[in-house]
Write a structure and sequence with these properties.
By secondary structure, this protein is of the alpha+beta class. It is built from nine helices and nine strands. It is globular. The N terminus and C terminus are likely disordered.
Length: 441
Amino acid sequence: MRRCIAAAAVAFVAVAVLSAQRGGWFIESRNHPAIEYSGGPLSDPIVELNRKLLDGSVELTFEPVSGYLGSLLEALDVPRESQVSVFSPTSFQASRITMENPRTLFFNDTVSVGWVRTGPVVEIAAQDPRQGVVFYTLEQKESGTPQLTRNDDCLACHLTRDTLGVPGLVVYSVAPLADERAYRDASVIDHRSALEDRWGGWYVTGGQALEHKGNTPTEGPQARRRDAGGTPQLASLEDTFDTSGYLTPYSDVAALMVLEHQTHMTNLLTRMGWEARVAAHEARTPDLRAPRASDDDRVRATAHELVDYLLFIDEAPLPGEPERLRGQSGFAGAFAAAGPRDRQGRSLRDLDLGTRLMRYPCSYMIYTDAFDELPAEALDLIYQRMWQILSGEERGPRYTRLSPADRQAIVEILRETKPNLPDYFQPLGGSSSGSKDPPLR
């Protein structure tokens, strides 16, 4: 049986995917000499956990119904409050997934964990700083020394155009079947997607009376009918199905929105590293084939695409007051508590959920190892482009959505919380002396 997990997504056989706002994608093999995804060394969180399980410094506890799930989350520092629930009957465990038995996903900045009640395995996707997302499964059988097993079969669904051509993650919003013979339609969603297009096939708890595609059947006679009152609103899942064995009764709207942002950001970071490594490799070995002038262009274009997303330039607006989104699982507080703060108490992990996702529109993923361990040339391009936008040198109309106050706050927070920030990130408004301009490229 193909084990194709979707640690932050839903995946399909014979799927028609409708995807908007596509950018570039990686076109080389994942086993290019500069990449070696299949056999290269790994340093993702699962490698470290397996080592600790073997030496006995960490133990996993097997519980009725949920199996290893709870202790696995604890060992990986993945908060239970991050739980979101998807009921589209997809992934290799599709036969077990229904609206009465949804699949749950949990995540932190580098790991996603998927669980299906009665399922044979827990599904894990971990971000390796160099190699990108690596997929694992953990058998739901009690064992003295459990081990998580790498499973590259998952790449059949997790290395596609929708993951930018690198092993990655994706969140889909599923449309109801037009009829029983129709293919499944879905659209990739992230922070650029309009709310009314999100969450088909997902449960959504919390929030306000907003129109979206969640909490509505995607199959069967009710799939194409919606209650007269609009989108069903849920405070919790407890009155929707039997939640025995589930770790929380929520599929938190705030967690869903952070997950959507994070999946595409994760893929952009992987692609950025891979493009830069391939370009450097080709520059060192020009005798192996004709020089490719496009390599540097691809790296620069990827950096621009990444920075636009990092700074939420194309974020879809949220409705604001009085429809401000409010999660109920405690996720927002737990998420915000995990990040560094400046002397004014500000953090890039502070959620807004009024007119936009983040209070300060710069992704917290800038603190991850996946960002810090990008090749030096890639980091240079990213920081230079960030400064062009934040300093106001970039005057394109798309960038006016970043107000002077936003730009100033982002720079101030980064200067106090981001190690190795380039010296040219100076306070805005000319208040500091000795400002240095970034090198031109």
